Known about the structure:
This protein is mostly helical. It has 3 domains: 10-90, Fumarase/aspartase (N-terminal domain) (Fumarase C, Chain B, domain 1, Orthogonal Bundle); 93-342, Fumarase/aspartase (Central domain) (Fumarase C, Chain A, domain 2), CATH 1.20.200; 351-411, Fumarase/aspartase (C-terminal domain) (Ribonucleotide Reductase Protein R1, domain 1). Helices cover 65% and strands 5% of the residues. The protein has a two-stranded antiparallel ribbon with strand order 1-2. Strand 3 (177-178), helix 8 and strand 4 form a beta-alpha-beta unit. It starts with 7 loop residues before the first helix and ends with a helix.
Amino acid sequence: MISRYETPEMRAIWSNRRKLEIWQEIEVLVCEVRAERGEMPAEAARVIRAKAAFDEARVLEIEDTVHHDVIAFLTNLAENIGPESRFVHEGMTSSDLGDTAFAVQMKESGAVIRAALVRLLDVVRAKAQEHKRTPMVGRSHGIHAEPTTFGLKLLVYWAALNRGLKRLDAAIADVTVGQISGAVGTMVHLDPEIEAEAMRRLGLQAAPVATQVLQRDRHAAFLAALALLGATLEQMAVEIRNLQRTDVHEVEEPFAKGQKGSSAMPHKKNPIISERITGMARVLRGYAHTAMENVALWHERDISHSGAERIIFPDGCHLLHYMLGKMTWLIDGLVVFPERMLENMGRVRGMVFSQTVLLALVRAGVSREDSYAAVQRCAMRVWDEDVEFLDALRSDAFVADHLPAADLERCFDFAFHQRNIDHLFERTLATGA
């Protein structure tokens, strides 16, 4: 991970020191539980708790010789504990340490990501409510469709982020499991009660069944949840990029004093944060794909997943946490141009109300086919003759015969198009996780 995208919270969670700290705690807890059950001397467990320690540099030095990280760690632990170290790791295997510690790290990083996501949800909701009735044109296929509001657009993103929060919570629960199940998951050397109590003290659940490793569908679900959140952030970023285009210019990313947009063109204000988020979302999807590839391991275990996981999980958590922070900053400081939104909507000279006119004719008793033909005929005049849509409708004999002038003019009222906005906000915000 490029250091500029790291956050201090994530760096601490995914550091080598934190991993070794968790390994040490797992080993000590298992000894303490065994001592409480009378399976090893209580004094030995007290010595292990008091003397257990590791030195990162020493662990790496040993690993250079043994080429096995867990063995290197246990060797260094034994150097510090002394004779009582013979009770450490008894009946356990490397994945009992590695996968359980991994679960703790995912739980901790998930909590950090969740807090950042909740902050973003709060900012998006506030901005949506601020612009609940700020009219703008809705676009389909990139073409003007009907009036909407900028607040409603943001509310759609809030709802997607809220679904992402629920998926994240489920994914965190899915990976908050550990194991002390032995070399092939049979628990032949340590009873299940030891595993259950050690996991409880670690704040984890014991996996109902495992091989030598925890099954990787859990891990794939975690990264998929991160990638889906990244995809929602990308959806928001792409829309901001489109709305910031010079020929649209309805919103603008914050632009700091002294910031420069181009090495060649001093006038440029580019949506660089939105573009960065877009690119990072692609990386997250790649990580999720790799996590899915890791599900199918040989027999009870191989280590084809291990090297990839050391990259994709720390990096994935770093990336999404960074992206959430940047999007929060962006939405909070987003510059919105309501006048430009109205100006852009006016470029099609009222044609955004075409469906309202169509339905008014239908309700007046005209067939849908004849109503559509009449409204389309008037709309084509707007495109071809550069006249106002309302004027084209007024001058059309068929429309005038079936729709009184007052009814026609009511079709061009923004208030009509916003009549259910409050309901949509109330219904959507009520789904908050």
